[in-house]
Protein backbone atom coordinates (compact mmCIF):
# COMPACT_ATOMS: atom_id res chain seq x y z
CA UNK A 1 0.00 0.00 0.00
CA UNK A 2 2.85 2.40 0.81
CA UNK A 3 4.41 1.54 -2.55
CA UNK A 4 1.17 2.51 -4.27
CA UNK A 5 1.00 5.84 -2.44
CA UNK A 6 4.65 6.70 -3.16
CA UNK A 7 4.72 5.71 -6.85
CA UNK A 8 1.21 6.22 -8.24
CA UNK A 9 1.61 9.90 -9.08
CA UNK A 10 4.70 9.16 -11.16
CA UNK A 11 3.12 6.10 -12.75
CA UNK A 12 0.27 8.22 -14.13
CA UNK A 13 2.85 9.94 -16.37
CA UNK A 14 4.03 6.60 -17.75
CA UNK A 15 2.64 4.03 -20.18
CA UNK A 16 -0.53 2.48 -18.78
CA UNK A 17 -0.49 -0.91 -20.49
CA UNK A 18 1.56 -3.54 -18.66
CA UNK A 19 2.76 -1.22 -15.92
CA UNK A 20 4.08 -3.08 -12.84
CA UNK A 21 2.00 -0.90 -10.51
CA UNK A 22 -1.13 -2.28 -12.12
CA UNK A 23 0.06 -5.81 -11.32
CA UNK A 24 0.82 -4.72 -7.75
CA UNK A 25 -2.70 -3.38 -7.14
CA UNK A 26 -4.70 -5.90 -9.11
CA UNK A 27 -2.77 -9.05 -8.20
CA UNK A 28 -0.13 -8.74 -5.48
CA UNK A 29 -2.31 -6.93 -2.93
CA UNK A 30 -5.21 -9.25 -3.77
CA UNK A 31 -3.11 -12.39 -3.25
CA UNK A 32 -1.64 -10.97 -0.03
CA UNK A 33 -5.09 -10.23 1.41
CA UNK A 34 -6.28 -13.77 0.75
CA UNK A 35 -3.17 -15.13 2.42
CA UNK A 36 -2.68 -12.95 5.50
CA UNK A 37 -6.37 -12.52 6.42
CA UNK A 38 -7.19 -16.12 5.53
CA UNK A 39 -10.13 -15.14 3.31
CA UNK A 40 -12.13 -18.10 2.03
CA UNK A 41 -12.19 -17.83 -1.80
CA UNK A 42 -15.53 -19.62 -1.81
CA UNK A 43 -17.04 -16.78 0.23
CA UNK A 44 -15.01 -13.70 -0.74
CA UNK A 45 -13.97 -12.12 -4.02
CA UNK A 46 -11.15 -9.57 -4.14
CA UNK A 47 -10.50 -7.21 -7.05
CA UNK A 48 -8.37 -4.13 -7.67
CA UNK A 49 -8.38 -1.41 -10.30
CA UNK A 50 -6.09 1.32 -11.60
CA UNK A 51 -8.49 2.27 -14.39
CA UNK A 52 -9.64 0.92 -17.75
CA UNK A 53 -7.39 1.89 -20.63
CA UNK A 54 -5.94 4.81 -18.69
CA UNK A 55 -4.91 5.65 -15.15
CA UNK A 56 -7.77 6.25 -12.71
CA UNK A 57 -7.65 9.23 -10.38
CA UNK A 58 -8.48 6.95 -7.44
CA UNK A 59 -7.05 3.39 -7.50
CA UNK A 60 -8.81 0.86 -5.27
CA UNK A 61 -8.84 -2.70 -3.96
CA UNK A 62 -12.19 -4.21 -2.90
CA UNK A 63 -13.33 -7.22 -0.90
CA UNK A 64 -16.77 -8.59 -1.75
CA UNK A 65 -19.03 -11.16 -0.13
CA UNK A 66 -19.89 -13.20 -3.20
CA UNK A 67 -23.50 -13.80 -2.21
CA UNK A 68 -24.08 -10.03 -1.95
CA UNK A 69 -22.15 -8.57 -4.87
CA UNK A 70 -18.98 -8.86 -6.92
CA UNK A 71 -19.44 -5.49 -8.61
CA UNK A 72 -17.99 -2.19 -7.45
CA UNK A 73 -20.94 -0.33 -9.00
CA UNK A 74 -23.65 -1.63 -6.65
CA UNK A 75 -24.11 -3.37 -3.34
CA UNK A 76 -22.03 -3.36 -0.17
CA UNK A 77 -18.36 -4.22 0.21
CA UNK A 78 -15.07 -3.25 1.84
CA UNK A 79 -12.71 -1.11 -0.21
CA UNK A 80 -9.26 0.42 0.10
CA UNK A 81 -9.40 3.83 -1.60
CA UNK A 82 -6.09 5.53 -2.33
CA UNK A 83 -6.19 9.35 -2.11
CA UNK A 84 -5.61 11.18 -5.37
CA UNK A 85 -2.69 13.15 -3.90
CA UNK A 86 -0.96 10.13 -2.34
CA UNK A 87 -1.55 11.40 1.21
CA UNK A 88 -3.03 8.14 2.44
CA UNK A 89 -5.52 5.33 1.98
CA UNK A 90 -9.00 4.82 3.40
CA UNK A 91 -10.33 1.45 4.44
CA UNK A 92 -14.07 1.81 3.99
CA UNK A 93 -17.26 -0.17 4.38
CA UNK A 94 -18.85 1.05 1.22
CA UNK A 95 -21.98 1.04 -0.92
CA UNK A 96 -22.03 1.23 -4.71
CA UNK A 97 -23.33 4.39 -6.38
CA UNK A 98 -25.02 3.03 -9.53
CA UNK A 99 -28.30 1.94 -7.84
CA UNK A 100 -28.89 5.44 -6.48
CA UNK A 101 -27.94 7.21 -9.70
CA UNK A 102 -30.22 4.98 -11.80
CA UNK A 103 -33.22 5.21 -9.45
CA UNK A 104 -33.08 8.87 -8.40
CA UNK A 105 -30.77 10.63 -10.85
CA UNK A 106 -27.46 12.25 -9.95
CA UNK A 107 -28.68 15.18 -7.81
CA UNK A 108 -31.27 13.37 -5.68
CA UNK A 109 -29.21 10.16 -5.74
CA UNK A 110 -26.36 11.91 -3.94
CA UNK A 111 -28.65 12.85 -1.07
CA UNK A 112 -30.17 9.36 -0.97
CA UNK A 113 -26.86 7.48 -0.82
CA UNK A 114 -25.66 9.72 2.02
CA UNK A 115 -28.92 9.18 3.89
CA UNK A 116 -28.64 5.42 3.40
CA UNK A 117 -25.12 5.46 4.83
CA UNK A 118 -26.38 7.42 7.85
CA UNK A 119 -29.30 5.03 8.46
CA UNK A 120 -27.07 1.96 8.18
CA UNK A 121 -24.51 3.43 10.60
CA UNK A 122 -27.31 3.81 13.15
CA UNK A 123 -28.43 0.21 12.66
CA UNK A 124 -24.99 -1.42 12.91
CA UNK A 125 -23.84 -2.68 16.31
CA UNK A 126 -20.37 -3.93 15.40
CA UNK A 127 -18.61 -0.87 13.95
CA UNK A 128 -15.08 -0.94 15.43
CA UNK A 129 -14.31 2.02 17.67
CA UNK A 130 -11.47 3.18 15.43
CA UNK A 131 -13.65 2.84 12.31
CA UNK A 132 -16.23 5.49 13.18
CA UNK A 133 -15.07 7.94 10.49
CA UNK A 134 -18.26 8.96 8.68
CA UNK A 135 -16.86 11.23 5.94
CA UNK A 136 -13.89 10.85 3.63
CA UNK A 137 -11.96 13.26 1.38
CA UNK A 138 -10.10 11.60 -1.48
CA UNK A 139 -8.54 14.90 -2.65
CA UNK A 140 -9.82 14.20 -6.15
CA UNK A 141 -11.10 16.56 -8.80
CA UNK A 142 -13.30 14.24 -10.87
CA UNK A 143 -16.94 13.21 -10.41
CA UNK A 144 -15.90 9.64 -9.69
CA UNK A 145 -13.93 10.70 -6.62
CA UNK A 146 -17.01 12.57 -5.37
CA UNK A 147 -19.11 9.47 -5.93
CA UNK A 148 -16.64 7.35 -3.97
CA UNK A 149 -16.89 9.77 -1.05
CA UNK A 150 -20.69 9.58 -0.99
CA UNK A 151 -20.73 5.79 -0.77
CA UNK A 152 -18.70 5.59 2.45
CA UNK A 153 -20.49 4.10 5.48
CA UNK A 154 -17.67 3.82 8.04
CA UNK A 155 -13.94 3.27 8.12
CA UNK A 156 -10.50 4.69 8.89
CA UNK A 157 -7.77 6.75 7.23
CA UNK A 158 -4.16 5.58 7.06
CA UNK A 159 -1.93 8.65 6.73
CA UNK A 160 1.18 8.01 4.64
CA UNK A 161 3.26 9.96 7.17
CA UNK A 162 2.11 7.76 10.05
CA UNK A 163 1.30 4.49 8.35
CA UNK A 164 0.17 1.63 10.61
CA UNK A 165 1.92 -1.71 10.81
CA UNK A 166 0.84 -4.65 8.70
CA UNK A 167 -0.51 -6.28 11.86
CA UNK A 168 -2.74 -3.26 12.55
CA UNK A 169 -4.03 -3.20 8.98
CA UNK A 170 -4.85 -6.91 9.15
CA UNK A 171 -6.53 -6.51 12.54
CA UNK A 172 -8.62 -3.59 11.23
CA UNK A 173 -9.76 -5.59 8.23
CA UNK A 174 -10.71 -8.59 10.35
CA UNK A 175 -12.82 -6.32 12.59
CA UNK A 176 -14.46 -4.61 9.62
CA UNK A 177 -15.29 -8.01 8.09
CA UNK A 178 -17.45 -8.68 11.18
CA UNK A 179 -19.37 -5.46 10.47
CA UNK A 180 -19.66 -6.45 6.81
CA UNK A 181 -21.22 -9.75 7.84
CA UNK A 182 -23.67 -7.82 10.05
CA UNK A 183 -24.83 -5.96 6.93
CA UNK A 184 -25.27 -9.34 5.27
CA UNK A 185 -27.57 -10.28 8.15
CA UNK A 186 -29.55 -7.04 7.84
CA UNK A 187 -30.10 -7.66 4.15
CA UNK A 188 -31.37 -11.16 4.89
CA UNK A 189 -33.14 -12.83 1.98
CA UNK A 190 -33.50 -9.62 -0.03
CA UNK A 191 -31.65 -8.39 -3.07
CA UNK A 192 -29.46 -5.30 -2.66
CA UNK A 193 -32.12 -3.23 -4.45
CA UNK A 194 -34.88 -4.53 -2.19
CA UNK A 195 -32.79 -3.77 0.89
CA UNK A 196 -32.05 -0.22 -0.25
CA UNK A 197 -35.75 0.34 -1.01
CA UNK A 198 -36.54 -0.84 2.52
CA UNK A 199 -33.89 1.39 4.10
CA UNK A 200 -35.14 4.45 2.25
CA UNK A 201 -38.87 3.79 2.60
CA UNK A 202 -39.26 5.83 5.81
CA UNK A 203 -36.98 8.53 4.42
CA UNK A 204 -39.47 8.77 1.54
CA UNK A 205 -42.33 9.06 4.04
CA UNK A 206 -43.46 5.44 3.72
CA UNK A 207 -44.09 3.09 6.64
CA UNK A 208 -44.65 -0.66 6.60
CA UNK A 209 -48.13 -1.82 7.50
CA UNK A 210 -47.13 -3.96 10.50
CA UNK A 211 -47.66 -2.90 14.13
CA UNK A 212 -43.91 -2.56 14.72
CA UNK A 213 -44.07 0.59 12.58
CA UNK A 214 -47.45 1.82 13.78
CA UNK A 215 -46.22 4.36 16.34
CA UNK A 216 -43.66 5.83 13.93
CA UNK A 217 -46.33 6.07 11.21
CA UNK A 218 -48.79 7.88 13.50
CA UNK A 219 -46.05 10.19 14.78
CA UNK A 220 -44.93 11.03 11.24
CA UNK A 221 -48.54 11.78 10.31
CA UNK A 222 -48.73 14.21 13.24
CA UNK A 223 -45.56 16.05 12.26
CA UNK A 224 -45.88 16.00 8.47
CA UNK A 225 -46.19 19.49 7.03
CA UNK A 226 -49.42 19.88 5.08
CA UNK A 227 -49.32 22.01 1.96
CA UNK A 228 -51.53 25.08 2.12
CA UNK A 229 -52.88 24.02 -1.25
CA UNK A 230 -53.89 20.55 -0.09
CA UNK A 231 -57.16 19.43 -1.60
CA UNK A 232 -60.09 19.12 0.78
CA UNK A 233 -62.27 16.52 -0.92
CA UNK A 234 -62.32 12.88 -1.86
CA UNK A 235 -62.88 13.78 -5.52
CA UNK A 236 -59.11 14.18 -5.90
CA UNK A 237 -58.75 10.41 -5.57
CA UNK A 238 -58.18 8.46 -8.75
CA UNK A 239 -57.78 4.78 -9.45
CA UNK A 240 -54.12 3.97 -8.88
CA UNK A 241 -52.69 0.58 -9.69
CA UNK A 242 -51.39 -1.47 -6.78
CA UNK A 243 -47.83 -0.36 -5.96
CA UNK A 244 -44.81 -2.59 -5.65
CA UNK A 245 -44.31 -4.04 -2.16
CA UNK A 246 -41.28 -3.63 0.07
CA UNK A 247 -39.40 -6.86 0.88
CA UNK A 248 -38.63 -7.31 4.57
CA UNK A 249 -35.61 -9.02 6.16
CA UNK A 250 -37.25 -12.44 5.99
CA UNK A 251 -38.02 -12.04 2.30
CA UNK A 252 -41.76 -11.47 2.78
CA UNK A 253 -43.69 -8.84 0.83
CA UNK A 254 -45.05 -5.90 2.83
CA UNK A 255 -46.99 -2.82 1.80
CA UNK A 256 -46.26 0.77 2.73
CA UNK A 257 -48.36 3.68 3.96
CA UNK A 258 -47.60 7.33 3.21
CA UNK A 259 -47.52 9.58 6.25
CA UNK A 260 -48.42 12.58 4.08
CA UNK A 261 -51.77 11.01 3.12
CA UNK A 262 -52.50 10.13 6.74
CA UNK A 263 -51.81 13.72 7.74
CA UNK A 264 -54.10 15.00 5.01
CA UNK A 265 -56.88 12.61 6.07
CA UNK A 266 -56.74 13.92 9.63
CA UNK A 267 -56.86 17.48 8.37
CA UNK A 268 -59.91 16.70 6.20
CA UNK A 269 -61.69 15.31 9.26
CA UNK A 270 -60.92 18.58 11.08
CA UNK A 271 -59.00 16.47 13.61
CA UNK A 272 -62.12 14.75 14.89
CA UNK A 273 -63.10 11.11 15.28
CA UNK A 274 -65.19 9.95 12.33
CA UNK A 275 -67.13 7.56 14.54
CA UNK A 276 -68.44 10.49 16.56
CA UNK A 277 -67.15 14.04 16.15
CA UNK A 278 -67.91 14.74 19.81
CA UNK A 279 -65.39 12.18 21.08
CA UNK A 280 -62.94 13.94 23.39
CA UNK A 281 -59.18 13.56 23.06
CA UNK A 282 -56.11 15.56 24.07
CA UNK A 283 -54.28 18.31 22.19
CA UNK A 284 -51.34 17.06 20.13
CA UNK A 285 -48.05 18.83 20.82
CA UNK A 286 -47.09 18.48 17.13
CA UNK A 287 -50.21 19.89 15.51
CA UNK A 288 -51.75 21.90 18.35
CA UNK A 289 -54.97 20.18 17.30
CA UNK A 290 -57.01 17.40 18.91
CA UNK A 291 -54.99 14.18 18.71
CA UNK A 292 -56.44 11.63 16.27
CA UNK A 293 -54.93 8.65 14.48
CA UNK A 294 -55.22 7.43 10.92
CA UNK A 295 -56.72 4.03 10.10
CA UNK A 296 -57.10 2.18 6.79
CA UNK A 297 -60.71 0.98 6.62
CA UNK A 298 -59.65 -1.80 4.25
CA UNK A 299 -56.37 -2.85 5.92
CA UNK A 300 -53.26 -2.13 3.89
CA UNK A 301 -52.02 -5.63 4.79
CA UNK A 302 -54.70 -6.98 2.41
CA UNK A 303 -53.32 -5.05 -0.58
CA UNK A 304 -52.47 -8.32 -2.36
CA UNK A 305 -56.20 -9.03 -2.70
CA UNK A 306 -56.93 -5.74 -4.48
CA UNK A 307 -55.90 -4.49 -7.90
CA UNK A 308 -55.90 -0.83 -6.91
CA UNK A 309 -53.93 1.06 -4.27
CA UNK A 310 -55.44 0.89 -0.77
CA UNK A 311 -53.37 3.81 0.50
CA UNK A 312 -55.84 6.45 -0.68
CA UNK A 313 -57.80 9.19 1.09
CA UNK A 314 -61.05 7.38 0.36
CA UNK A 315 -59.79 4.49 2.51
CA UNK A 316 -58.25 6.59 5.30
CA UNK A 317 -60.26 7.15 8.46
CA UNK A 318 -59.54 9.59 11.27
CA UNK A 319 -60.20 8.00 14.69
CA UNK A 320 -59.73 8.92 18.32
CA UNK A 321 -57.29 6.58 20.13
CA UNK A 322 -60.15 4.77 21.91
CA UNK A 323 -62.06 3.95 18.70
CA UNK A 324 -58.84 3.03 16.90
CA UNK A 325 -57.96 0.44 19.53
CA UNK A 326 -61.55 -0.78 19.72
CA UNK A 327 -61.74 -1.44 15.99
CA UNK A 328 -58.58 -3.55 16.26
CA UNK A 329 -59.00 -5.26 19.62
CA UNK A 330 -62.63 -4.89 20.69
CA UNK A 331 -65.31 -7.56 20.88
CA UNK A 332 -66.88 -8.58 17.59
CA UNK A 333 -70.25 -6.93 18.28
CA UNK A 334 -68.70 -3.51 18.97
CA UNK A 335 -66.21 -3.80 16.10
CA UNK A 336 -69.02 -4.64 13.70
CA UNK A 337 -71.04 -1.63 14.84
CA UNK A 338 -68.15 0.76 14.20
CA UNK A 339 -67.19 -0.83 10.90
CA UNK A 340 -70.77 -0.71 9.58
CA UNK A 341 -70.98 2.99 10.32
CA UNK A 342 -67.69 3.72 8.58
CA UNK A 343 -68.41 1.37 5.67
CA UNK A 344 -71.77 2.99 4.90
CA UNK A 345 -70.10 6.40 4.78
CA UNK A 346 -67.17 5.36 2.63
CA UNK A 347 -68.36 2.58 0.29
CA UNK A 348 -69.15 4.96 -2.57
CA UNK A 349 -65.82 6.77 -2.21
CA UNK A 350 -64.04 3.41 -2.15
CA UNK A 351 -65.79 2.29 -5.31
CA UNK A 352 -64.69 5.43 -7.16
CA UNK A 353 -61.05 4.56 -6.58
CA UNK A 354 -61.47 0.90 -7.52
CA UNK A 355 -61.72 -0.55 -4.01
CA UNK A 356 -64.84 -2.68 -4.31
CA UNK A 357 -65.73 -4.67 -1.22
CA UNK A 358 -68.92 -5.85 0.46
CA UNK A 359 -69.53 -5.47 4.16
CA UNK A 360 -69.43 -9.24 4.57
CA UNK A 361 -65.96 -9.29 3.01
CA UNK A 362 -64.87 -6.46 5.28
CA UNK A 363 -66.08 -8.42 8.33
CA UNK A 364 -64.10 -11.43 7.12
CA UNK A 365 -60.95 -9.32 6.88
CA UNK A 366 -61.47 -8.11 10.45
CA UNK A 367 -62.17 -11.71 11.53
CA UNK A 368 -65.63 -10.84 12.87
CA UNK A 369 -67.80 -13.86 13.49
CA UNK A 370 -71.21 -14.08 11.78
CA UNK A 371 -72.69 -15.89 14.77
TrEMBL record:
<feature type="domain" description="HNH">
    <location>
        <begin position="290"/>
        <end position="328"/>
    </location>
</feature>
<protein>
    <submittedName>
        <fullName>McrA protein</fullName>
    </submittedName>
</protein>
<feature type="domain" description="Type IV methyl-directed restriction enzyme EcoKMcrB subunit DNA-binding">
    <location>
        <begin position="3"/>
        <end position="184"/>
    </location>
</feature>
<dbReference type="Pfam" id="PF12102">
    <property type="entry name" value="MrcB_N"/>
</dbReference>
<dbReference type="InterPro" id="IPR021961">
    <property type="entry name" value="McrB_DNA-bd"/>
</dbReference>
<dbReference type="InterPro" id="IPR002711">
    <property type="entry name" value="HNH"/>
</dbReference>
<dbReference type="Pfam" id="PF01844">
    <property type="entry name" value="HNH"/>
</dbReference>
<dbReference type="InterPro" id="IPR003615">
    <property type="entry name" value="HNH_nuc"/>
</dbReference>
